[in-house]
Design a protein that fits this description.
Blueprint: H1 2-5, H2 9-16, H3 24-33, H4 38-48, H5 69-73, H6 96-106, E1 113-117, H7 124-134, E2 143-147, H8 157-164, H9 175-183, E3 188-193, H10 202-211, E4 215-221, E5 230-234, H11 255-259, H12 263-272, H13 286-295, H14 300-309, H15 315-324, H16 326-332, H17 341-355, H18 359-368, H19 377-384, H20 388-396, E6 401-403, E7 406-408, H21 411-419, H22 423-439, H23 445-450, H24 452-464, H25 468-485, H26 488-499, H27 507-523, H28 527-543, H29 547-563, H30 567-583, H31 591-603, H32 607-622, H33 628-647, H34 651-665, H35 669-683, H36 692-712, H37 718-734, H38 737-748, H39 752-763
Parallel strand pairs: 1-4, 1-5, 2-3, 3-4
Antiparallel strand pairs: 6-7
Length: 769
């Protein structure tokens, strides 16, 4: 239910338990999700808002919340704006007044940019997410959240926004212009989090706003963006009890109820309850709690650190510590002019928690700052010598956030940790971090996807250190991730920097990187650059007498020619690759160039030749130990055989081939898109067997091919582009324009996983019915 109405599961639980009432907007979404009849809607809203009581409501006629996944994916079945807002891992203390103020400004027709300002740890991100969830219905095209915290280079802001909006980074048109074109007619809220680190990109943000009248930006930052039309909202600390609230002892029995109405007290008590479930405000401890919240100025992070300290000391000890540590209090309220007061408070709140750690734990805490985006226990042990007990202590102090199987330093705490290291300690720790990720065995995409930020940081360090072996090795580990997740520009930039390091390295390693960066280049249709790197790889392979590396490089060269439609040159390169591979099949699988050659035959319309090449390729591929390259070619081979079956009028045989291709194709966006194009061909088998629902499904799959292509930035080969265009035209001829557009739009929104599920559903059918 929470997913349907765009809130957290905790919010639904609180509503069900009568601990809170929904907003009017949320109540309306609940009414729609529950299928409340129109005649009962007004009553439902009043009851939900606790403005009226009722014994029961009339049962719904039909709920739009289905168990059928396809129904929930259709905008027509459930026309609700979408969003990618993160779900916080801890409970939210509602800033009722601040949320209302931000929403009031954000929903004004004359406001395009709202910047939530405040010190680190004051809750800017949480407020922005909470406010954005409340206004989703005001934006027809939904809400897009973009986390800028990992960035330090303003040049990466537009690519990061583009990735969040599923816009390809590469293309003939400048990225800014493509983003403006995309956003020109959209009614979208763009939430840009942590802008202070990349404030130089403010001009580009302004350009996006000027290009789209329906676009609004909700930013969080420590400082204003200084843009025309910017509306600033300075986020204050959490609400605090007045200092004289506890002056009247005769009123002590009312202190707990009164204190819990203040946000700072509510947050502190909630966090303590995470490890002391029965903790509460009582007349006996009210003064101590009040003192702690007042001394910490209502800063959320400081309050959370104080709550974590109760693992090791009593509440009375904590309150006394704040009162007696004069030097700490003086530093907390330092009058330094170069820092805002709340930033000084946050920094020293972290320093105070840091000071409570023993020397060994302090060392681990500092060194864990080298990890970006989280880490595993094994990584912490190897890089920093941090054992599970140390991680547990840091988690108890709220200096580490715990997720399943992983830990993470909040960004501001990570910055603090790094600042505590000497230059020598930081260099040694970063070298250890880089060495660890060089040694990681990457067997699937998930390993790199989970630790992408760490792999990237290790690679950047290796390049800065001019460590050619580490840099090239890390490139190899990330190349498949870059290729399959749309990081083409980032991958090319980093790989080229690694290749530029002047050092003697194993030619096998250098050839591997040259091949990968060439592949990234041709996928972005930068064919001249791709050819340059592939030819350098071929030259190295010939010079060092490495026939297997030459065979694999010739495949890359053949692919570059195929992508440009030059099938004669492609055939020459691939035939040479086949000859070399057959001389040493244990070093390089001849099935790979044979599969590529089958695409040349398909493009020429020579079905017999394609079938012959594939008959030789598939036994070679299936006899080889699994690898990412072989997996891609297995998917390609069976997809090509499906096209041959279609050409000969055997749709059920084509279906069988696609079922063989899907396990490998599902892992690679390009291969999956090709499979979907072929599946469309099966669905459009000749009348009279084709059903209307098949044609509608074909339209949705065509939309999916387009949507996945926009996200990956990787155009299909000329063969599949031609097949795509032909089949799209056939679908348009068989469907009314409105049905075609509706079905295409539904598919366009599907994720890679949803596309795989849809393909599985259709491939389970018998098409010769």
């Amino acid at each position: 239910m929470a997913q349907h109405v765009g809130c957290t599961a905790a919010t639904i639980r609180k509503i069900e338990a009568d601990e809170r009432k929904p907003s009017w907007q949320l109540a309306g979404l609940l009414a729609t999700a529950l299928g409340v009849p129109d005649e009962a809607r007004a009553l439902f809203l009043r009851v939900a808002r606790q403005l009226q009581t009722v014994d029961h409501l009339a049962p719904a006629n039909q709920s739009p919340v289905h168990n059928n996944p396809a129904a929930t994916l259709s905008h027509a079945a459930y026309p609700r704006p979408v969003h990618n807002l993160p779900a916080p891992m801890t409970s939210l203390v509602d800033r009722v007044r601040d949320t209302a103020n931000v929403i009031q400004v954000l929903t004004r027709t004359d406001v395009r940019l709202v910047t939530v300002l405040g010190s680190p740890g004051i809750g800017k991100t949480r407020l922005a997410i909470h406010a954005a969830k409340q206004v989703i219905e005001h934006f027809r095209d939904g809400v897009c959240f973009v986390d800028l915290a990992p960035l330090t280079d303003a040049a990466l802001v537009l690519p990061t926004i583009a990735h969040s909006l599923a816009v390809a980074e590469l293309g003939p048109t400048p990225l800014l212009d493509r983003l403006r074109t995309l956003l020109a007619e959209k009614e979208l809220l763009l939430v840009l989090d942590n802008c202070e680190q990349v404030s130089a990109a403010a001009i580009e943000i302004a350009a996006l706003l000027r290009g789209g009248k329906g676009l609004k930006v909700l930013a969080t930052s420590r400082a204003p963006l200084w843009l025309g039309g910017e509306h600033e909202y300075a986020l204050p600390p959490l609400s605090l009890p007045p200092r004289d609230l506890l002056l009247d002892p005769s009123d002590a029995d009312k202190w707990p109820e009164r204190l819990m109405t203040y946000e700072a007290v509510e947050l502190f008590v909630t966090r303590v309850r995470q490890h002391q479930y029965d903790f509460s405000v009582t007349p006996a401890n009210a003064a101590q709690i009040c003192t702690i919240c007042l001394r910490l100025d209502g800063i959320p992070l400081a309050l959370e650190l104080a709550a974590a300290a109760l693992h090791r000391m009593t509440l009375a000890h904590l309150a006394t510590l704040f009162q007696d540590e004069a030097n700490w209090l003086h530093e907390l309220h330092s009058p330094a002019r170069d820092l805002p007061p709340r930033q000084r408070t946050l920094t020293l709140a972290i320093a105070w928690s840091y000071s409570l750690l023993d020397v060994k734990t302090q060392t681990s805490f500092r060194q864990l700052g080298v990890f970006v985006g989280g880490f595993t226990a094994a990584a912490a042990q190897t890089v920093c010598g941090s054992d599970p007990a140390t991680l547990a202590r840091l988690t108890e102090h709220n200096l580490l956030a715990r997720a399943p199987e992983r830990w993470q330093l909040l960004e501001m705490i990570r910055e603090f940790a790094l600042a505590q290291m000497s230059s020598a300690e930081r260099t040694a720790t970063q070298q250890s971090h880089s060495t660890y990720f060089v040694a990681q065995a990457v067997t699937n995409f998930d390993v790199v996807a989970r630790d992408h930020a760490n792999f990237r940081a290790a690679l950047v360090w290796a390049i800065a250190s001019q460590d050619a072996y580490a840099a090239l090795t890390l490139c190899i580990k990330q190349c498949w991730f870059w290729e399959t997740h749309g990081y083409l520009r980032e991958g090319m930039t980093l790989a080229r920097a690694a290749l530029a390091i002047p050092a003697a390295v194993d030619p096998n390693l250098r050839i591997d990187v040259l091949q990968r960066v060439s592949t990234l280049a041709w996928q972005g249709h930068q064919f001249a650059i791709a050819m340059q790197f592939a030819e350098e790889a071929a030259t190295l392979a010939r010079r060092n007498d490495l026939p297997a590396k030459l065979a694999s490089t010739l495949i890359v060269l053949g692919r570059i020619w195929i992508e440009q439609g030059d099938y004669s040159h492609a055939e020459i390169a691939l035939q040479e690759s086949i000859q070399l591979a057959r001389q040493a099949p244990h070093l390089f699988n001849p099935g790979c160039p044979l599969t590529q050659l089958s695409e040349v035959a398909l493009a020429r319309g020579d079905w017999a030749a394609a079938q012959a090449h594939l008959a030789q390729a598939i036994p070679c591929l299936v006899s080889t130990h699994e690898s990412l390259l072989v997996d891609v070619h297995v998917a390609m081979a069976h997809t090509h055989l499906a096209e041959v079956a279609l050409a000969y009028g055997h749709p059920n045989q084509a279906r069988h081939e696609l079922r063989q291709a899907l396990p490998q194709a599902r892992l690679h966006i390009r291969r999956l898109r090709c499979l979907l194009v072929t599946l469309v061909g099966i669905l459009l088998r000749p009348l009279p067997t084709t059903q209307t629902q098949d044609v509608t499904a074909a339209a949705s799959l065509l939309g999916t091919v387009a949507g996945l292509g926009e996200r990956s930035g990787d155009p299909l080969s000329p063969l599949f582009q031609a097949l795509l265009a032909q089949r799209a035209e056939r679908v348009k001829q068989r469907l009314p324009q409105s049905e075609w557009q509706a079905a295409w739009q539904v598919g366009h929104t599907w994720t890679q996983a949803q596309a795989v599920a849809e393909a599985e559903r259709w491939l389970a059918l018998d098409f010769e019915r």
